[in-house]
Amino acid sequence: MRIKLFIEYDGTNYVGWQKQKKGISIQNEIEICLKKLFKKEITLYVAGRTDSGVHAKEQVAHFDIDSKIKPSKISSAINFYLKESNNTISILESQKVDELFHSRFSARKRTYFYRILNRKSPSPLLINRTWFVPYSLDVSVMLEASKSLIGKHDFNSFRSSQCQAKNSIRSLEEINILRKEDEIHFSISARSFLHNQVRIIVGSLVNIGRKYWQKDKLNEILAKKSRTSAGPTAPPHGLYLEKISY
Which candidate in 51, 154, 182, 216 is catalytic? Predict the structure, then answer.
């Protein structure tokens, strides 16, 4: 049977989702628990790979297993082993799904959430949870500027030099930006993203919000199709994979 997992994690101490030659990955830690539970090697397939330091509120992965364990009970069993190893990972839910379901290829939309702490002093409680930006940011100007990114564009300026995607054409469905007390929250949705695309968008919008750039700058950046024309890549610790829609 095919099992779908909903996963939450703090990515601070991991090299990212994907297994690496060096460092602790989220994928490997869960697969270790699956091996303990089912006494065999199991491969996880994920909806979206997250980088080192990036968090997830609701990541989705799946695997196949022949087992008599009730699907809904698998999450608790994995959590037992995760806690044993002091991991900052939690399986929110496990459920049986159709064998045609694929966590990555069946996904219709991915939503990322980014948090900025926007005040004069940093917070020791939010060091690995937000990007601390001490200068004033104009949310209304950032929101207005972000509208030029909605729709289908060549986002070559908004991807890392290590991005392995064959082309840089993507369609952004929605960008929401709002202030909540001392924090500014970004919510960005699309079917798929380029490597570091969300973080480069946030970094570029911050340049506009602090009045370093004019609000129409993003149109110029899109047209240049060059990473060097866009803003900085926002730090990973402010980014959260919020939801995968199917």
Answer: 51
From 169, 198, 173, 204, select the one nearest 186 (Cα to Cα): 198
Task: Give the CA diameter of the chain.
Answer: 61
Put simply, whether the predicted model's pTM sits higher than 0.85 gets the answer yes
Residue 108 CA from chain centroid, whole number:
15
| 51 is known as an active-site residue | yes
CB 52 within 8 A of CB 233: no
User: Tokens 């803003």 correspond to what residue?
Assistant: 231
**Assigned token pair, 104:** 């990555």
Q: 3-class SS at 56?
A: strand
**In terms of residues, how long is the chain?**
246
- What's the alpha-carbon Rg for the chain, to the nearest Å? 19
Give the pLDDT of the chain (246 residues) as one tens digit per residue. Answer: 999 999 999 999 999 999 988 899 999 999 999 999 999 999 999 999 999 999 999 999 999 999 999 999 999 999 999 999 899 999 999 999 999 999 999 999 999 999 999 999 999 999 999 999 999 999 999 999 999 999 999 999 999 988 989 999 999 999 999 999 999 999 999 999 999 999 999 999 999 999 999 989 999 999 999 999 999 999 999 999 999 999
DSSP labels for 114-174? EEEE-SSS--TTSTTTSEE--S---HHHHHHHHGGGSEEEE-GGGS-TT---S--EEEEEE
